[in-house]
Every structure is written in structure tokens, then in C-alpha cells.
């Protein structure tokens, strides 16, 4: 009988295949639905002396404490950072710090989708000029102007600002100088104006403020700019906030500001998105010259879709396991709990249920034969058998005995099998006595 054969070899024919199937199911589910994320990411920052690079080093330090290696790559600015994120330029990056407005250009074919993990900082748009009384970008027409390094977010934003007042690079003298070279050009009298984006503590901004004859331009009628460029805002720069001793600036100024965001590829593993958002939370939770404590990091007014994982992390922090364990062990334990444990429980249940079913099936055979035997015994007890009926009952007993001998009885049912065989012999003797043989 197939059931008896399977039950006798249940370890080899039932439990071993179930265990192998469970291992295959774990491997497939692990690979397709929750593959282990790489414990290494590339983060494209910015100039080695800039604020973006300093932020990136903080993220790398935080993620390193959790067991993730962060390769911080310097770059020429936000535009290059975006190209690296989108896979359009090498080295490809999974994380980058991007200035507001850097994504305003046309989307290139084949560019990867991006998500925002957090807006992390406010960056003033500084406009410095040698000529006093400038309060409009149109007044820069014909002047020698530094727009920032090519490929930088600063230059892209500067071109967008000029475009709003119908100026193009042909309407100004677009110089090639930027950063500290622009400071030297101001001092040498070969530069009239400069547009740059940078933190108040930037060495270039500090040098500009200390250059004789160079003034900060405060634009008037900025409402139209804010309407057309929603990633810009106006913030107050209080008098003396940059240098109280020198009283810089000498009066309160309203400056255009943009924001810097931590951006990731949309296909970056969810645990790495959460960890990067947690790094931003630790690095940017304090106050700054243009924002209060707790204002950053945030996901308001973002240019790329907000990451769901980052939103949960900024609101609730990292999950408990990822907070308590190193990255690798946390991810391994999650997969053991989510994939391996349920599959193992199902396999254990099946490995017990199938043999139990086969045992019940074999036991039911014995019970049915007992029922047939009981029917014959009842006839004997009631003196209801004689002649040809005795012959039929004897044939039934031989048939029961034949089927019993064909059954490979498991050891735990062997006592019942022998008891049934004895009962068959006992009834056979009774039938023969009744027939006179």
C-alpha cells in the first residue's frame, strides 16, 4: 500500500522533501522580495572645502557607526551630483546633496528616478557688487559677472534668475572666475558682480564680506521671482549677524535663499534610505542663522518625490532593530523573522501533519477490518449463520487476512495488527465449529 510505504519511510520521502522545499522557498522569497542590501553606498557631495562635503562627512560618520561604508566623492556641484545619481556620469552615486533648483533642466533619456530623503539646510543666494544702489538683476546688464563654476548648482540657479528678468549670458560679461578667484578679481578691479550660493560661514563668503568696496545686493520686488521659482524663499539677515565686531551687515537685509536636499536613487534599498534619513536627522536638528531648531530636516516643498521610508524615519526614528543592531545583523534578523520563520513553521506543520494523516489512514484500515469482523461475530452470537453463509463468512475472513498480510504495518500499530489477527483466528474457529468441521 502506498500510504504504508510512505509512512514507513516518512523521514526520506516526506520530511526531507518538505525541508528541501522550505529551503528553496526561503531562498526564492529572500532573493525576490527582500534581498540583502549592500552595506556600501557612494555619496556625491561637492567641493572638498564646501558645506556639502562637510555634511557628507557627518553622514558617513553616522552610517559608519551602523556598519555601512560611505564612499564620499567630491564633485563640481549639484548638477554633477544629479548626473551621478541618474547614472549619466561616473562614478555613479546612490546618495547626493543637491541644491534647490538644480533639477530645473530638461530630464535626459535613461536618467534614473530620484527621491528626496530630506531638505537639510538653508543656503543664501549672495549677490555681491562693486557698484552701490543695485537692487535689480537687470542692472547687471553689460557688467562683468561671476555666475559660479560650470556644472554647479550655483551657476544653474544664477542663469535661472537672469532668465526671469530676460537676461542671457550674452547680455553680461560672463567671466570664468569663481570662488576665491572671484574674490581676487574684485580686489584687482576686474569683476563687477558675483552671484553665489553658500553658507554664511563659507570662506568665500567671508572673504567677500571683508573685501573693500564690495557690497551685498538686496533685491527689490522679489515676489515675482518667488512665484516663478518655488524653491526660493526670502529670509531676514539681521544686522551684525555675520560679524558683530565689524557690524556686518550694517543693516537688516532680506536675502533670497534656497535649500539643500539629501537625494537618493529611487531604487536604493529601503533600509539604506532610512539610515541616510536618520543621519540627516542627527546632523541637521539644530538651529542656524536662517532657521530655527527642528525646522530641518524636513520633507516640505521638495523638488523630487518624498521617500516614504524617509518620511517615517524623520517622524518616528529608525525601527528598533536597526537602532539597536549593526546594519548587517539587523537586516539579517528581519529576513529571518519575516521569511525564514514563517516558512519554517509551515514546513514543520506539514512535516507533522502528513505523517499524522498517513497514520490515521492506516489505523482506519484496521478499524474497518475490526468492523467487518464484528459483523461476523454478531451473526455467530445470534445463531444466524448456517450452511452457505458460513462459507461466505470464512471467505470474508480469508480476505481480511490477505489484506492484513499485504499491509506494511508501522511498529506503533503492530500490537493492534496482532490483536486483530488473533481475533480473526478466534472467529474462524467458531465458524468451523458451527459447520461441524
From TrEMBL:
Q: Show the coiled coil region(s).
A: none
Highest taxon, organism lineage:
Bacteria
Q: Which InterPro entries match?
A: TRAP_TAXI (IPR011852)
Spans through the membrane: 12-33, 328-351
Q: Which SUPFAM superfamilies match?
A: Periplasmic binding protein-like II
Q: Which UniProt keywords apply?
A: Membrane, Transmembrane, Transmembrane helix
Check the record and name the PANTHER family matching this protein: SLL1037 PROTEIN
Query: Which protein are we looking at?
Result: TAXI family TRAP transporter solute-binding subunit
Instruction: Show the taxonomic lineage.
Output: Bacteria, Pseudomonadati, Pseudomonadota, Betaproteobacteria, Burkholderiales
Amino acid at each position: 500500500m502506498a500510504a504504508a510505504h510512505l509512512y514507513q519511510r516518512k523521514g526520506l520521502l516526506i520530511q526531507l522533501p518538505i525541508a528541501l522545499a522550505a529551503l528553496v522557498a526561503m531562498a526564492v522569497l529572500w532573493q525576490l522580495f527582500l534581498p540583502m542590501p549592500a552595506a556600501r553606498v557612494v555619496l556625491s557631495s561637492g567641493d572638498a572645502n564646501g558645506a556639502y562635503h562637510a555634511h557628507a562627512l557627518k553622514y558617513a560618520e553616522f552610517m559608519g557607526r551602523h556598519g555601512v561604508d560611505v564612499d564620499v566623492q567630491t564633485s563640481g556641484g549639484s548638477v554633477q551630483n544629479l548626473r551621478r545619481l541618474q547614472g549619466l556620469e561616473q562614478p555613479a552615486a546612490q546618495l547626493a546633496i543637491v541644491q534647490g533648483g538644480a533639477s530645473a533642466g530638461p530630464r535626459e533619456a535613461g536618467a534614473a528616478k530620484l527621491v528626496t530623503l530630506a531638505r537639510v539646510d538653508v543656503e543664501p543666494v549672495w549677490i555681491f557688487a562693486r557698484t552701490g544702489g543695485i537692487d535689480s538683476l537687470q542692472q547687471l546688464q553689460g557688467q562683468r559677472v561671476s555666475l559660479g563654476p560650470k556644472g554647479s548648482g550655483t551657476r544653474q540657479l544664477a542663469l535661472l534668475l537672469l532668465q526671469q528678468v530676460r537676461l542671457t549670458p550674452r547680455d553680461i560679461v560672463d567671466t570664468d572666475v569663481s570662488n576665491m578667484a572671484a574674490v581676487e578679481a574684485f580686489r584687482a578691479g576686474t569683476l563687477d558682480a558675483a552671484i553665489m550660493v553658500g553658507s554664511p560661514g563659507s570662506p568665500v563668503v567671508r572673504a567677500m564680506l571683508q573685501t573693500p568696496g564690495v557690497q551685498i545686493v538686496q533685491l527689490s520686488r522679489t515676489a515675482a521671482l518667488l512665484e516663478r521659482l518655488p524653491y526660493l524663499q526670502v529670509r531676514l539677515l539681521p544686522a551684525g549677524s555675520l560679524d558683530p565686531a565689524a557690524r556686518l551687515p550694517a543693516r537688516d537685509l532680506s536675502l533670497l535663499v534656497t535649500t539643500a536636499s539629501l537625494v537618493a536613487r529611487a531604487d536604493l534599498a529601503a533600509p539604506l534610505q532610512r539610515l541616510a534619513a536618520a543621519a540627516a536627522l542627527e546632523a541637521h536638528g539644530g538651529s542656524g542663522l536662517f532657521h530655527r531648531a527642528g525646522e530641518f530636516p524636513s520633507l516640505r516643498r521638495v523638488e523630487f518625490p518624498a521617500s516614504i521610508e524617509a518620511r517615517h524615519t524623520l517622524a518616528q526614528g529608525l525601527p528598533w532593530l536597526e537602532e539597536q543592531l549593526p546594519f548587517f545583523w539587523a537586516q539579517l534578523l528581519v529576513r529571518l523573522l519575516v521569511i525564514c520563520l514563517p516558512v519554517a513553521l509551515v514546513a514543520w506543520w506539514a512535516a507533522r501533519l502528513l505523517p499524522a494523516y498517513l497514520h490515521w489512514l492506516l489505523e482506519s484500515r484496521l478499524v474497518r477490518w475490526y468492523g467487518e469482523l464484528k459483523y461476523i461475530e454478531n451473526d455467530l452470537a445470534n445463531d444466524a449463520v448456517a450452511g452457505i453463509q458460513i462459507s461466505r463468512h470464512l471467505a470474508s475472513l480469508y480476505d481480511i487476512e490477505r489484506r492484513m498480510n499485504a499491509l506494511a504495518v508501522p511498529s506503533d500499530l503492530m500490537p493492534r495488527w496482532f490483536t486483530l489477527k488473533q481475533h480473526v483466528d478466534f472467529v474462524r474457529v467458531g465458524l468451523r465449529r458451527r459447520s461441524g468441521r
